[in-house]
Known about the structure:
The protein is an all-alpha fold. The chain is built from 3 helices and no strands.
Amino acid sequence: MLMLSFYFVLSWTPKNLVDLGFSVEQGIFASVLLNVGGIIGGMSFGYLAGKSSARKVSRYLLAGLFVCIVAYGATEAVSCR
């Protein structure tokens, strides 16, 4: 589920930003920032999983990811009106 969510965000964010009026370069830059965030998130997950249970950390991570994607979708829906 984590990889599916990450693929969705990486695949559609640049196009959505361009559709909202940003330049192609800004959409690509946003994609780069998402990848950097993924690296930082992966390292943080590894650290937290080492300190605690990976199952416990995964639960919170997926719940947080769900909230972020729903918020992103809600923001996009409002700005497209």
